[in-house]
Design brief:
Four copies of one chain form a homotetramer.
Chain A: H1 7-12, H2 19-22, E1 26-31, E2 34-37, E3 42-45, H3 48-51, H4 60-71, E4 82-83, H5 84-98, E5 106-108, H6 114-129, E6 134-137, H7 146-149, H8 155-159, E7 168-171, H9 182-192, E8 203-206, E9 209-210, E10 216-217, H10 220-233, E11 236-240, E12 264-267, E13 280-283, H11 303-312, H12 320-342, E14 348-353, E15 356-361, H13 366-376, E16 379-380, E17 382-384, E18 390-393, H14 401-427
Parallel strand pairs in A: 3-16, 6-7, 6-8, 8-11, 11-12
Antiparallel strand pairs in A: 1-2, 2-3, 5-13, 9-10, 12-13, 14-15, 15-18, 17-18
Helix pairs in contact in A: 4-11, 5-11, 12-14, 13-14
Chain lengths: 428, 428, 428, 428
């Protein structure tokens, strides 16, 4: 296949295909924050595989280790047998990530995707508590398999289940009702009221920044309050850090600034480093109660991902990357606020934190138009939120200033054009 | 990590780890049907990653293509955007697999694991029929996420859910009641009786040979009868070919000899060729009704797996591999029947077909002991069945005669030793 | 209202009304086995309020006691407070029914209907076992509220739920597969197979003779085998004796001839004696574990029903009624077998036992026609079975020979006429 | 049984018995607002069978009609066949209740208890909308069968189910968060947010005054707002008027002052007039879509209850009773407010409206003590609320001034004594 032609996909792939519709070209080469299609057209990547490519495409160090591993016929697939690559990952993850953060977790490999880790977390929480209910939040997104979908807010995704989704109760996420501590008070009231109809949950599951849900960033006080709710009522706290974790918000785990210690942490997406499927479920030893094999899966032992994941951990040996992300996050925030001010026609609100920021526009369909224009001008960016009302900046966290500014410039151009077109629309 | 030492795993990995307990060593190198641990001890692989390594470890042709792809910075992770690697796979899969078999399917990438494809299939069947119930079979195994677990028979795995599993009804698999057509008649009776309490299902899901469930191979007549049941009642037929597919039984799809045409086919495990996570859901165009993005997942676009998957399809350009598998299957069957005859103490029954054969032993714990002895003597083999009563031969389908005979010899030795020990046990 | 006119019902009552369509007249007076409509037309009652009027209409002794009670302003409604009427019932029920049969039960008043007692039984069984699954049988009927409907087989009734019905598994009732002990073996196999997908149930619930389900009478050996299954696996046995109990099959409890001792027994319908709402849940003391008020209901204390229920127990002080029912049952059976022989056009099969007998006709719609003709000629009789294929003789168990013969004569006439008409239909 | 002795109940009745523990005596005679036990001790009834005896005990006019009906052998039990007694009820209910209030409903007889009517309403709403979710409210109480229990808030009752309760979502009832319109805004937000995780419901079910839940009276504006929410989103509005209906709040239906027109209304308890089991489901003709017999039940045709229900409707031929209830309600409210002021030790808050008023006390266990003292002094009164924190005045709505004042005097005495004892407790 050497032609930039989508007919193969139109003919043979299911109608469920989605991103190919928004980015209608055939990609081939990729490096760092750049992608090229078969016409060699260059795109800047402000999408990062929906958070699976935090280190950009095909990082050179990881690439080197990966090729070495393949060349020496390191075992590729090992289920949950012990392998050198896996052992090295486990050790380094402990040394570089857990120990310095004073976190005490056993590592479970639940299958290589986000929904696998979420399902394993929910099952475990229910098993250890003997309760069935789980509390999730408005606009939470946790995956597409029935267990994970039951704690996912999106109505369109939920409908795809074809069955009523059960054993979960939705609570308002931070800032949902717009009244500083009201969501917490409301949740406490419901949990403590013997007449509320809310069965005591096994766990509360949440993302600290809701990616798919529209870049809603919880305040640290809110996270602390949720942890307190859990502690006082023997409820397990599960942080789904699949999208917000691995540095996307400026720290390895997104919850670090809150100082909380979840009972279970779900990691996937960028944990493999190179974009290969890998997921971890981190479990406080007190709750490490699955019997051997009680949850399993064929692709728990993706050794190529272990190799690159181990290499990727070098980024976390010092605080250089963290600092860089935090600084660039401020640049992004400033840029977005400028846009909102400069283009009131956006009816825009700033959303998110770290490298998960964007603008929610009240204008119907506008976010989609902005993303469309960006693509035309060589920038890949997606929308989020229940009505796709947010355009979402997700650059690799390793992006340099030049790449970031280039991307922002394209975005500004796209906004300008869309705003102009909207005006024409209204005038005509 | 250069020492063959399990302490890292014991210390850092969750108690849920399982195979490492049966095969307590640290693997590193692998090639074809062989594995080596860090002590350079060689093992013959009659396990094949539970069916994910049908082509053996690190196949040279695939390895070459994979390294090339990585070296040229081909895009690694592409969600469901179009990529060259994906396009080439789609085209070749159509040309080499579907067209020659007169099968008409759209290809969905539901996420890279078996449970992802099963969940997508169940969701789709419920969506297109508007019904919620699904019929599955005794000793069926379909995955560990809640939707797939609901159609899985194993009590131990089901308990791990922590919630009652719903929207599914178990029927007896072929030969369950030991009376030629009775299971079919029983199923028909229940489906057609307005008072049976069995709600008309959206779909019937089955494996043609139940791998985890104990190597129960359905007769072709039974498969045809199930298809007929579906056709006559507008029920969708889903074949979960995750383990039995991709040549394991001697044809690419395990259902080919029955001449049936399922509405949905689930593929994973060996479809990627090299052991990397990949899964497909094949959907008859009439049922290709998910809206764009209604089911999604981060790792739908695992391009390294597309590259090796495409290369692997070369095995299917002619019938050489098929014939070889079919011939060697007879050798395996003969060997197993010999063992059953020669060692009546096994109280053994032959199970399975193709490269999914084994012996069910009525002696409590015996299958486990045989597998343990095999490991000691350098053969990797697992057990299956609800009580782990079956030892299960799963060599790579590309194994040569020498490898096969070596493995069988070890197995015979292991059986002999176990039988001798059992006798001592009884005598003492 | 003095006119025999249905317009009020057509105008003001919901479309869900049902029996009024089959018996389109306005009833007013009733006595013993007779009913009269507003035109003073007399009907013989072979329906008995679907088993709620086993002692016929307005029994003179009960009537006397009831009027006395009302006249002396005995408390009518007492929730579950203690009342004289209730105390007397409890005492007499113990003395006349439980003690002589060596049955040891605590009495729960779960609300006054059959579905109330079934729901209380299911809830209790789940609570005391900590399990959620319940096994019910093909063509079982247990009530219309969601818990009871989940263990009910009828597809039409199930659809009315509007939600998937859960936490129950259907097994084949005795004689379902027509092979003496196969249903039991099949059930044992599924319960003991760790891979069957059948979660160990809290309870097995069954009717010894399925009334609504088509007069399927279980053999005593089958009942004993089910009890054994329960005992060996710590599963509770619930007998729903709502319709078959209170003498309908010739003994007070329908399960007496089998010598089994259920853990929980559900009684309603005729237990009140006079046709007033009353239900009991009999609970073996070991399982009497609901906390005070954990299940409740407004009409648990229907004292008018206690008064007539107590009086009705006089019928059971000796074995006169039992003997009479058993003798007349033989007469009914002989009559039905004669009909089947005499009118092969019925394609009839005998069904049921005791005062729950009937004929299942293979001719589509024939049972309904017979019931229709009966009504024209002054006999009230209903149909049963998943396709209304059974006409069902349900006379009061107190009916005298004259009444019984009169009814049978009308039935024979109706059969004759229907058979003749069917013939005409075929000929023309 | 002529002795006031509870031993029969202790010996033979299930542990689930409840009110007999709070009112430990054997009642026998009852008239109007008075009850007598077997020792001829008189009690004033401020309990009214939990709302089933709004017209007091054994009303003379109803008694006369009832005895006449029984004496003339009027049919007692008629399933859903037409009977004179039922026809007369239907006609009069239409003339006296529905027509003057401009309400257009078909009447369904769903079985004779509150939980029967609630289950029928939920099933119907799900059937006609094709949706499965139902919204209920904090501290709502709708019944003990699984469907009704799923929309009931009380944790203790819910636990009795033994299974996870599904297909329902709890919303905050009026005044739950104490911020005038916030509950409505919150509900609207959740319903209209495509990411909220709240599936569009078939129906919203509510009590206008929550009896069991603690006498929480919704404001009329809130009821109107809920109706508006339903109308704008094609959601059915179900008012469960089982306890608050039939005059208890001062109008026949409790929702009349709000001017709303529910799609379905559930009635039971006092609708029968004399305390006999009877329930109605009132259905707007547009939703009268159950097929004949799709929901049924043995005791739908309780003719003795029809007779007294018809007679009871005479109370509603003019507005005398309504006015009397409304006036006396003010007296009750004034009395309770006086108590709260006079006895600050109660830490009391006024609750409820009409003849459903009471005091919520913040002092743990105090409400129970007050009810206990009342019983000692000859007043029957129960507590309500998730922690039994409310003592609840439920006199018959026909009570005269003398009876009311007598009861209030006893209550005041009880409060005084409890307050004094509490003081002693604190001092000592």
């Amino acid at each position: 296949m050497n032609q930039n032609d989508l007919s193969i996909f139109n003919e043979h792939e299911s109608e469920v295909r989605s991103y190919v519709r928004g980015f209608p070209t055939v990609f081939h080469e990729a490096k760092g924050y750049k992608l090229w299609d078969l016409d060699k057209k260059e795109y800047i990547d402000f999408f990062s595989g929906a958070g699976a490519l935090n280190y950009g495409h095909n990082d050179d160090n990881m690439k080197k280790k990966l090729i070495e591993y393949i060349q020496e016929d390191g075992i590729t697939h090992s289920l949950d047998m012990a392998s050198k690559a896996k052992g090295e990952f486990l050790e380094k993850f402990h040394e570089v990530i857990l120990k310095p953060r004073d976190l005490n977790y056993k590592v479970m490999f639940p299958g290589p995707t986000g929904t696998n880790t979420v399902e394993s977390a929910l099952k475990l929480a229910r098993k250890v508590t003997g309760r069935t209910n789980v509390i999730s939040f408005t606009n939470g997104f946790h995956g597409m398999t029935i267990g994970a979908l039951s704690v996912t807010g999106n109505a369109f995704k939920r409908k795809g289940a074809g069955i009523p989704l059960q054993n979960a109760v939705t609570m308002p996420f931070d800032n949902y009702i717009q009244n500083t501590n009201q969501e917490i008070e409301y949740m406490e009231r419901l949990l403590d009221d013997n007449g509320s109809g809310i069965d005591t949950p096994a766990a509360i599951i949440l993302e600290t920044v809701q990616g798919e849900g529209g870049l809603n960033a919880a305040r640290m006080e809110w996270l602390q309050a949720v942890e307190k709710i859990c502690r006082e009522r023997d409820i397990l706290l599960i942080i789904d850090d699949v999208q917000a974790g691995v540095g996307r918000t400026g720290t390895f785990f997104s919850f670090e600034p809150a100082g909380i210690k979840p009972d279970i942490v779900c990691l996937s997406k960028s944990i493999g480093g190179y974009g290969s499927p890998l997921a971890l479920t981190l479990i406080h030893p007190d709750y490490d109660k699955f019997a051997p094999g009680e949850h399993n899966g064929t692709f728990r032992g993706n050794n190529m991902a272990f190799v690159t994941a181990t290499e990727a951990l070098n980024y976390w040996k010092d605080d250089q990357l963290e600092k860089s992300v935090q600084e660039k996050s401020q640049r992004i925030q400033q840029f977005l606020n400028d846009m909102i001010k400069k283009y009131p026609q956006l009816k825009g609100t700033h959303r998110g934190r770290g490298f998960m920021q964007g603008i929610a526009s009240e204008v119907d369909g506008l976010a989609d138009k902005v993303a469309g224009k960006c693509f035309e001008h060589g920038l890949i960016m997606e929308t989020a939120g229940p009505d796709d009302e947010v355009f979402k900046l997700f650059p690799p966290i390793t992006i340099d200033d030049e790449g970031l500014e280039k991307g922002l410039a394209i975005l500004q151009k796209a906004i300008e054009e869309v705003v102009a077109e909207e005006k024409d629309l209204v005038t005509s």
